[in-house]
């Protein structure tokens, strides 16, 4: 089942009222997936649909704990596995699995549960944030800025780079014989600093190459994502 039409309808039914003191909060979707997981292809297809939607930042984090069963995922990173495990510890969970979707750092959903994903997207579609986060390119650098403001808790500043699309022929493991098209494949994830809001946030960081970049402000844990900005080029 393709989700683009259904999800677009679900989100377009909302007309959020955003005050001057608020900014629209994109819906950040993290999919934990693996080329070696037989249950993952439908979730991978769903993420491809979400990647094209306005107001959604869709990220595919390939984990490495399925590599042992016969197909090493070329996109997998131990850091992605560690991030998923940290989410599990924060929630008091003892296990991780694929496919799993986490929305705005808060809601944990089985990646193949179409209706649950739609419901959570709809619930977060009118989210706002008081943080005026701005990210922009200047040559090979990325400028990250936000004015000083009171915060409930200091926020971690994350820089994410991703590959918009790649096709993979899988010749081993549970998905042997499939040619998969993957979208928004996270290639690097860096925690830059922690910001407490007492001073303006102002960072200039290297961002060479043409891969899109995403900046996230997230409560430690990892917890809720409080602001997000995407730079396409």
Overall pLDDT level = 91
Shape: globular
Per DSSP, the total helix count is 4
CATH architecture: 3-Layer(aba) Sandwich
Report the C-alpha radius of gyration, rounded.
17 Å
Q: Beta fraction of the residues?
A: 35-45%
Q: What class, by secondary structure content?
A: alpha+beta
The CATH H-level homologous superfamily:
Glutaredoxin
In total, the number of strands is: 13
Question: In what order do the strands lie side by side in the largest sheet?
Answer: 3-2-4-5
The top level CATH class name: Alpha Beta
Helix content: 10-25%
Main beta-sheet strand count, sense and barrel state:
4 strands, mixed
Element-by-element helix/strand order = HEEHEHEEHEEEEEEEE
Kindly give the count of domains. Answer: 1
Return residue spans where pLDDT drops below 50 for at least 5 consecutive residues.
1-20
CATH topology: Glutaredoxin
Cα separation of the termini: 31 Å
Organism: uncultured Rubellimicrobium sp
Protein name: DUF1223 domain-containing protein
InterPro entries: DUF1223 (IPR010634), Thioredoxin-like_sf (IPR036249)
Pfam families: DUF1223
Describe the protein.
By secondary structure, the protein is of the alpha+beta class. It has a single domain, classed as Glutaredoxin (3-Layer(aba) Sandwich). Helix content is 18%, strand content 38%. It has 4 helices and 13 strands. The chain has helices at residues 4-12, 41-50, 78-90, 114-124; strands at residues 23-24, 27-33, 56-62, 100-103, 107-110, 128-129, 134-138, 141-146, 155-169, 179-195, 201-206, 213-218, 225-231. Strands 3-2-4-5 form a 4-stranded mixed sheet, sandwiched between helices. β2 (27-33), α2 and β3 (56-62) form a beta-alpha-beta unit. α1 (4-12) runs parallel beside α4 (114-124). The radius of gyration is 17 Å and the shape is globular. The two termini are 31 Å apart. This is DUF1223 domain-containing protein. Pfam families: DUF1223. InterPro entries: DUF1223 (IPR010634), Thioredoxin-like_sf (IPR036249).
């Amino acid at each position: 089942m393709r989700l683009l039409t259904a999800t677009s309808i679900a989100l377009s039914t909302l007309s959020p009222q955003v005050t001057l003191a608020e900014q629209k909060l994109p819906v950040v979707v993290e999919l934990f997936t693996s080329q070696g997981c037989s249950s993952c292809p439908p979730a991978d297809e769903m993420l491809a649909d979400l990647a094209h939607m306005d107001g959604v930042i869709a990220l595919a984090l390939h984990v490495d704990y399925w590599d042992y069963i016969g197909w090493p995922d070329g996109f997998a990173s131990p850091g992605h596995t560690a991030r998923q495990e940290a989410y599990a510890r924060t929630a008091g969970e003892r296990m991780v699995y694929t496919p799993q979707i986490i929305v705005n750092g808060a809601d944990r959903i089985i990646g193949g549960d179409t209706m649950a994903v739609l419901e959570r997207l709809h619930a977060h579609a009118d989210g706002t944030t008081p943080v005026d986060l701005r990210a922009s390119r200047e040559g090979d650098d990325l400028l990250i800025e936000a004015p000083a403001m009171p915060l409930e808790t200091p926020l971690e500043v994350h820089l994410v780079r991703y590959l918009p699309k790649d096709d993979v022929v899988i010749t081993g493991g549970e998905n042997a014989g499939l040619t998969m098209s993957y979208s928004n494949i996270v290639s690097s994830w860096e925690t830059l600093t922690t910001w407490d809001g007492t001073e303006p946030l102002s960072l200039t960081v290297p961002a060479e190459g043409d891969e899109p970049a995403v900046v996230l402000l997230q409560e430690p844990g990892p917890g809720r994502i409080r602001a997000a900005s995407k730079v396409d080029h």
